[in-house]
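<context>
A single protein, sequence plus fold
<entry> Chain with its tokenised backbone below
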Amino acid sequence: MRIFKCSFCGDDIQVGKGLTYFKIDGTPLHFCSSKCKKSLLLYNRKPRRVKWTKHYPRQPKQSASASNTAEKS
């Protein structure tokens, strides 16, 4: 049994769940939900620009003490 990753959001897909779409060239795309499938195929969205995906670039959070010292100077 194999666990796939969603081609759009990057979440794990359990066995027996999700959707599989085959492109014309035979490449399989695995989706965890119809929301991911529509976002990629119908709306042509890029996963790096959608905030709820794992591919969205996250900025590391600054600690409160580091930001306070920067404001006081």
The chain has a mean pLDDT of 86. The chain has two helices and four strands. The two ends are 58 Å apart (CA to CA).
